[in-house]
């Protein structure tokens, strides 16, 4: 049981579940809407959004390199799909596979100078799109709150147990 803000006393846990579901749906649908708008934007220069995401992720990584499984951890792609995408980026000279410093057997995906240049070029244009679509909808305080809440939500996941159903009573409202 949880307490709501309508006064003292317990309310059904289903209300907390509904609030979580409603918040998730709002976040998810906002993200889908924005990604669709970004995909239609003319900033990509022949690079797909997924390819750009790999270049961006590598640009922020230490030594601009990550093992494929680390790269997969920040992607919605399966590892085989990501591997094929990396093959294409490598063929275009944007990344290269190479050794992991301090691990003779390890292999990593490294951002090349050409890849870093492409990422910066697209990134500048994409940043203007983000500012227009996100910054155009929210004021500076709301942007700071959104960033804080999304970071908090992301970081909390490592400490939260995996959701598991124990009974049919756990079914969320409206399912």
Write the layout of secondary structure elements.
Layout lengths: L1 E2 L6 E2 L1 H28 L8 H12 L4 E2 L1 H6 L5 H13 L3 E6 L2 E9 L1 H23 L4 H17 L19
Antiparallel strand pairs: 1-2, 3-5, 4-5
Question: How would you describe this structure to a colleague?
Answer:
This protein has helices at 13-40, 49-60, 68-73, 79-91, 113-135, 140-156; strands at 2-3, 10-11, 65-66, 95-100, 103-111. With 175 residues, the chain is an alpha+beta fold. The two termini are 20 Å apart. The model has no long low-confidence stretch (mean pLDDT 87).
Descriptors:
about 180 residues, three-stranded antiparallel beta sheet, globular
In the predicted model, the low-confidence regions spanning at least 5 consecutive residues are none
Which geometry do the CA atoms define? globular
How much of the sequence lies in strands comes to 5-15%
Main β-sheet: number of strands, strand sense, barrel status? 3 strands, antiparallel
Helix/strand/pairing category: alpha+beta
Strand order of the largest sheet: 3-5-4
SS element count, helices: 6
Mean pLDDT: 87
Q: What is the CA-atom radius of gyration, in angstroms?
A: 21 Å
